[in-house]
Write a structure and sequence with these properties.
This protein is α/β, with parallel strands linked by helices. It has eleven helices and ten strands.
Length: 422
């Protein structure tokens, strides 16, 4: 399957955002995998696919579930987001059990109180979120929540260039009475610029404007992903402005500028495609900005027809990479980027490309069995879109079986940590 988007859920009939100009064209090839390969396609830009990888098995359980009442779209009030005591990803182990579909095991309360740390990582379970692909976004988000029979904890929104965020709509959705939501805002500051130019200060004035806006209007903590999925845009030519070193310098400069301006509630997030074909590039690790400026590491994973389970989705390498001793992206990131940072699936989805509607339902059911083998995964943000025959239909209700399985998964206590107030 090919990831449907370059900048997120906002394509019109011409394959571009109604809010912004199209991204630059990309180059590259999509490697063919041998038939036995359990490959995954992860977030691509401008139509180039990215294959991901996976391995391991487990069982999923967690904290008590809570489903909020349906929202009243007429209401909006301030309900800031809270942060609890800090905890490393290695300490984020759930210590309770809960009944899983077909398991017959009784649910119990965790032995220790579940908290949310200063970078929004829950100590019990993982956030359940979504990016919706239609407009207006508030109506689309609420329609998605009605469809899945629960509120989302994380709302993923995309920005670029000199747009100002969070918008009034974002803020209202974050503070909606009865269903607080955390914001994951995804920004490409180099639109119309280059990584090298941004690193040299070309967007400093706008970063200053954003800083003042955030401090004045939104004190809640939120994730800020800076130019997600940069891999296919890397051009290792001197002076291109798009080398791996340029990307790293750009990310670091943006974070430091926000911090110098006193923005202390942004949780800075690095998002990769998670494609093993890029992991083997000699420049790949040079794109990582550094643990001092990265709070979370994200990657975007989509299931192609061969992918039947969550394990295959997140942590199995393609054959060529396995021969080089490279693990799937989950384990590779823990070993090579950070063993402590929380991880997220900043986008993920099951497709209908196999032609068998049972496959997506089984992918969803497998998450309940396997999620606890990936304790560093602290957020799963679903990409819900009818992408067409080329990219695959990732809508959770593409079939009745898929919707039933996704609803059951979303009811698990593991995916229902309480959203903090501030």
């Amino acid at each position: 399957m090919i990831s449907p988007r370059s900048d997120g859920p906002r394509r019109d009939g011409r394959g571009r955002s109604p809010e912004r100009a199209p991204a630059r064209s990309s180059r590259g090839t999509f490697p063919r995998l041998s038939k036995p390969a359990l490959a995954v396609v992860a977030g691509t830009s401008c139509g180039v696919a990215a294959v991901l990888v996976a391995l391991n098995v487990g069982d999923g359980s967690g904290q008590a579930a809570r489903v909020a009442q349906r929202p009243d779209p007429r209401q909006a009030s301030q309900s800031p987001i809270a942060a609890g005591p800090a905890a490393t990803a290695e300490q984020d182990r759930d210590r309770g059990t809960a009944t899983l579909p077909g398991s017959g095991r009784a649910a119990t309360r965790p032995k220790k109180r579940c908290t949310v740390d200063k970078v929004l990582a829950p100590t019990c379970g993982a956030w359940w979120g979504a990016a919706v692909n239609t407009y207006p976004q508030p109506a689309a988000l609420r329609a998605f929540e009605r469809k899945i029979d629960r509120p989302v904890a994380v709302y993923h929104k995309y920005y670029r260039g000199k747009q100002v965020f969070p918008s009034r709509t974002d803020i209202a959705l974050a503070r909606e009475p009865g269903r607080r939501r955390l914001l994951l805002l995804n920004w490409k500051p180099d639109a119309g610029e280059s990584w090298a130019k941004v690193a040299s200060g070309s967007m400093d004035g706008h970063i200053d404007t954003l800083s003042a806006h955030i401090k004045r209007n939104f004190p809640e903590r939120f994730w800020l992903a800076i130019h997600h999925e940069p891999e296919e845009e890397v051009r290792e030519r001197p002076g291109s402005g798009y080398t791996a070193a340029d990307y790293r310098a750009m990310f670091r400069h943006v974070v430091k500028r926000f911090r110098e301006n006193g923005v202390d509630n942004a949780v800075f997030t690095m998002v990769y495609m998670g494609y093993s074909g890029y992991v083997v590039k000699p420049w790949f690790k040079a794109t990582y900005p550094g643990n001092d400026v990265v709070d979370w590491i994200g990657f975007d994973a989509y299931a192609d027809p061969s992918v039947k389970t969550f394990t295959h989705l997140v942590d199995r390498a393609a054959p060529a990479e396995r021969r080089l001793g490279i693990a799937g992206f989950y384990r590779w990131a823990r070993a090579n980027l950070s063993s402590r940072k929380p991880l997220m699936l900043s986008e993920w989805g099951g497709t209908e490309l196999s032609g068998d509607p049972r496959d997506k339902a089984e992918l969803f059911r497998s998450i309940a069995r396997e999620i606890k083998s990936y304790p560093a995964l602290k957020a799963l943000i679903y990409w819900d879109a009818k992408n067409g025959h080329k990219f695959g239909d990732t809508r959770v209700d593409a079939s009745g079986q898929a919707l039933q399985a996704y609803r059951a998964l979303g009811r698990l206590p593991y995916f229902n940590p309480a959203v903090p107030k501030r």
